[in-house]
Input
Amino acid sequence: MVCFGYSDAIVPFGYLLAEFLKEQTIPVMVRLLLLVPFAATILPSFVRRMLARGVLTIVGLFLLTLLWLLGIVIYVVYPMPGNQIPNWIPAITSGPFLLAVIATMTHSIRAITVARRKHESQT
Output
């Protein structure tokens, strides 16, 4: 969804992240930590309890948003020398990502609220 300027091309953030993860000079622990937001976003799909699923989804989306902010800082705030792509490209392409995060967060908060009400009514 999100694209950044990379020298003289517009490249999706996922591709830049995959290339970064392939880099052999980066420590393995750093590469694994960069994969945690994706795992934390997928993991709630396997959880059956609505309350736990909502909380895990919010944590995963929060981590994914932090990764997105890291990309904004690296590729927009401190761009590569010779970057010829304007900064409005990441701003426009970040819109759908942010809308998806907001919608998912709203759904997860509603799911948590419903699960808490159901649990309170049973006790």
